[in-house]
Amino acid sequence: MKQENNIKNDLLNLFSEDKEFLPFRLFNESIKNIIKEKEIPTSKTEQWKNTSLDAIFKHKFELGKKINVPNQFVDTFSFYGSEADRLVFVNGFFIEEKSQISQNKDEIYIGSLRNALQTHKEIIAENYCKTGLCKHNFFTAINSEYSQNGAFIYIPDNVVLENPIHIVNFIHGDNKKVFSQTRNLIVAGKNSNAKIISSYHSLSEDFTLNNVATEIITKEHSNLQFYIFEGEGNSANLINNTFVNQHEGSTFISNTSTMCGNLVRNEIHIDYKGEHCETDLQGIYLPDKEQHFDNFINIKHSKPNCKSNQIYKGIIDNKAKAVFTGKVYVARDAQKTDAVQSNKNLLLTDSAKVFSRPQLEIYADDVSCAHGSTTGQLDQEAIFYMKTRGISERKAKTLLMSAFIGDVLDKIEISAYKDYVKYLLNRRLKGQKVEGLCSLQICPSC
Amino acid sequence: MAKDDKILKELQDKEYEAGFTTDIEMDVFPKGLDEDVIRAISKKKEEPEFMLEFRLKAFKYWKEQKEPDWALLNYEKPNFQDISYFASPKNKPKYNSLDEVDPEIIETFNKLGVPLEEQKILSGVAVDVVMDSVSVHTTFQKTLKDLGIIFCSISEAIREHPDLIKKYLATVVPARDNFYAALNSAVFTDGSFAYIPKGVRCPVELSTYFRINQANTGQFERTLVIADEGSYVSYLEGCTAPQRDENQLHAAVVELIAMKDAEIKYSTVQNWYPGNKDGVGGIYNFVTKRGICKGDNSKISWTQVETGSAVTWKYPSTILKGNNSVSEFYSVAVTNNHQQADTGTKMVHVGKNTKSTIISKGISLGKSNNTYRGLVDIKKSATNARNYSQCDSLLIGSECGAHTFPYIDVDNSTAIVEHEATTSKIAEDQIFYCNQRGLDTESAISLIVNGFAKEVLNKLPMEFATEAKKLLSLTLEGSVG
After folding, report:
1. Are A264 and A295 spatial neighbours (Cβ–Cβ below 8 Å)?
2. Which of A50, B75, B103, B124 is deepest in the core (most CB within 10 A)?
3. Does B69 touch chain A (CB under 8 A)?
4. ipTM over 0.85
């Protein structure tokens, strides 16, 4: 206990008062108390049972600094090409000169939260800290209080964005162990339609911890697609919390690809504020070596007639660990809820480990809920069949693995992004070097 | 719709039919728990020294423990100092025939529909009757004795077969396993013991009927079943309890040990007093049941029908240690009114080529909550392990809850683990179809629920299946059809 307090104090000491954090306490003053109350999760915390942070907090961090990023890196990760609007962040600082915003017309806002405070203060005040994120846990609380900056995207009512928006998040240790935070807010107005990619990369091989929190509000009948691409370095750690509030008739689709990182914890929380919403959460994770990827999903069906779907698939290699917790909560009066959950895992070695917890908590009777979880290995018969047709064993395995993951990737609706993820995946499965993705060069069992 | 509501209401209002109290003089310890009480229990039971040590050690550990609170249950924590830890019928001479048994006991069982003599003659079931804590009557002792089978109360086993007890007791569920297992280890008063020797196939179904009888006596049963190499036994456990308003605590421990090529089939029908329709009273059922497939090719199967208890906290588990060992778990849990059940199983795969199957059916009515919580843990050594789990929940009425919390941990790439769960209410098209064929809605619901649970009920031994179906109908059909 004492040790945990020390870790907590060390972290809090990073945010000494002279630093310029986003002035969000203007909107919400109680967060300091929450930080005081909440503890850093330990293995005794049920929701963190299989994900231990002990190894991370053995290191002493300092706060990330604003560092400019060379052009070639930005270009490497701009996989959508020149058409996408691009917001570039390094260690949670907005790099305006590398960002590229073309769709900012009428009322649309694509930019940094800090800048938006000048022009869109009311909209921010209306939506900030309204999803339950701020009070969720220690990490979301410190993010709410001590973030430097983050993306703010506001799509006004009835606006359909043609091109996707890409938020590029870099973490750069600069030979130091760095802790950084980014705070994003996305508001999709009534009947609007947009696609957003949020990607995470490392610019150095330093030991880093990135604490990201994103709040998303989808207003009535809006349609938002949110793609998360995680490819930080081998010693980079990422805690990524996303809270979504969906209003009547809105559709939210997310697709998370976790390719690399030391420890990655993704949390997606969905809450319905109106009826007839649809949610589709997809995800792939490919942990290798001693990586640890954890996906935590909590869908709260507090309103009737909503539909949610989760599909998460993972290939676990080497000594890696994967955790999936998918919770569906159906409140008493949330009748006609339709919730489906599916988690499929492929273990490539005997040292790989998977923890799967698909959970249903249902208090309404007129619902249709189902979940499924499977864990297994590659089908030997299928491999044999392909071998008899002259396909090498290695190629057969790669084919089977990409087919296994393929149906999740096929759901991606931005074709350039889909091609990029597929390209990386195939290189990864073939054991080829993936430029800039992370330093993982070979996939030993391929 | 109005008719449906009426049916549902009738169903929920149904009083507990097996609720009545038997008046037999009892020898009861004063309330409270400390080392002296444990010493007194041990002395009263004429136990050897090692048992007392075992109990005291468990008690010491229990004092250091906190009551678990991770289950999705909401109840008033029992006051462990407000419970009497020993109760036994005062007149306990050894009976030679049924005539000598206190007629009231016979009457109790007659009310329950399990008359001893009928069972003796018709079903060939040997019944070790546990009236509260001390064994009163044991039948078919002779048939079993000829085969070398030991089937007696655990206190008798402690006196007569201390070697076996010393060797096997608390090897599957150690005293330090959990809060309630520790409590049970410290204060258990009686229970059953069965030992099936090598190569023997037990010809009858061993059966114990438990009844909690004296007000304010928690019951702490201890069951130990050992199936030696190549043997087979089917063990039945059934519970009913009289109706009363105070919450009663039941913290049993069941241990099964299956040696090489042995098979144990353990069936439970649990119908303890669930409290009245406002949720007052009812039994707290905090049970630790665990079996170990110790030898190769061994098999343990759990079948349970849970209809009673106000609060249930129960996870019959199997450790599949022997290579090629197999375990099955079949469960039907029905909760009504304010009942809460957090139940499921654990399958820990250690040996190679181990297989487990989990079929769990939960039915929630009224304001009840029914949770499946299960763990499938494939250890690194469990090459080619296989698990299939299926959990279905049926919701009847709009105020109940059904929850599924499976935990799946896989540490071996050759394992194949599958889990499926569905939650739904009785489909209106199914009822409509039955109506169309001339069945009224009442019979339709009954038919659908029975069909829903059939997969599990079919796994029960013949003798038990009848009782299980009767219990289901008590909670469901009786008022529906």
Report:
1. no
2. A50
3. no
4. no
